[in-house]
Each structure stands twice: as structure tokens, then as C-alpha cells.
Amino acid sequence: MKKTIKSIMAFAMTICLSIMVGCSGIGQPSPEEVMDKINSREKLEMEDYETILDYVEEFVEVGEASPNNYESGQEVARAYP
Asked: Are 62 and 76 in contact (CB under 8 A)?
């Protein structure tokens, strides 16, 4: 009986932690919102910097996966202004 209760509690805890991790990015602003803050010279918060890092990381991944030519470079530049 104790093993069953412990198993159920462990499963419930795993589900709760999974939900918390999955929902942690909900409050993160969009890149456009961060750019508006930068242009208006507002103070950036930690979430803003996280958005910037995520944006740059995605840009680098897309750039590395693209063919190494002028046209693909232009496409990436348009997708990530």
C-alpha cells in the first residue's frame, strides 16, 4: 500500500513539475515588444534579456542550417530583422 501511495505521489509531482516548466515561458515578452522597449529607451528586465538570447540563438541555428549563399542570407535577414 505504501509503495502505491509513493508511486502516485511521485507521478503527481512529476506532472506538476512538467506543467511548471512548460508554463515558465508564458510571461516572456515577444521580440517585437523588447524592440519597442529598446527603441523607447525603457529599462530592460531579465525576461527581456531572455527573449533576446532566445531570438539570437534561433537566428544562429537557422543561419547555420541555411545554404551558404547570398540569397539564403537575405532570407534569414528578412526573417530576423
From this structure: yes
Report field, pTM of the whole predicted structure over 0.70 = no
Residue of 50, 61, 67, 37 lying closest to 80 (CA atoms): 61
**What is the dihedral angle through the alpha carbons of 45, 51, 52, 58, rounded to the nearest 10 degrees?**
170
* Residue 37 confidence (pLDDT): 95
Q: Does residue 29 contact residue 51 with C-beta atoms inside 8 Å? A: yes
pLDDT of residue 67: 87
Low-confidence ranges of the chain (pLDDT < 50): none
Quote the distance between the C-alpha of residue 68 and its chain's center: 26
Q: Where are the domains of the chain?
A: 2-79
Q: Are 66 and 75 in contact (CB under 8 A)?
A: yes
DSSP single-letter state for residue 27: T
